[in-house]
Amino acid sequence: MEPQQANTIDKAKPADAPALVAIWEDSVRATHPFVAEEDVLFFKELIVRDKVFERMPVHVLRGDDGTIAGFMAANDGMLDMLFLAPAHIGKGGGRLLMDYGLNHLGVKRVDVNEQNPEALDFYRHFGFEVVSRSEVDGFGRPYPILHMALRS
Length: 152
Hints:
There is one protein chain. By secondary structure, the chain is of the alpha+beta class. The protein has a domain at about 5-105: Gcn5-related N-acetyltransferase (GNAT) (Aminopeptidase, 3-Layer(aba) Sandwich). The chain is built from five helices and seven strands, in the order βαααβββαβαββ.
């Protein structure tokens, strides 16, 4: 069965947290094959333990039935995360979320894993360019990060 078209963006509710964790994990496994299994589990534990989705300003993309297709979190012009459920990847949900972030949340910067060329191309499509690079991620793990900013 084809997933329902997602078209509504609203603020996440505390009750959405388990679904957001599941979407994050499924999306990472589908789009970040370079991330080691122990690191996926480390980050998932961190997200759950620190109640990340309850503490961050998260916006969700929902279908008419309320099912969450994806989500984004942005703060102070920085896109902290944008993830889609694997069944919704490539169906326009990422574009809807990104347009919302640019037009309503003031997104001007994003960090991207260097080993994720699809994400790099996605953000370039919206006018972002690489401005610097870090050899490791924010936790010192061996995942180089490209720091991107909107072209002026």
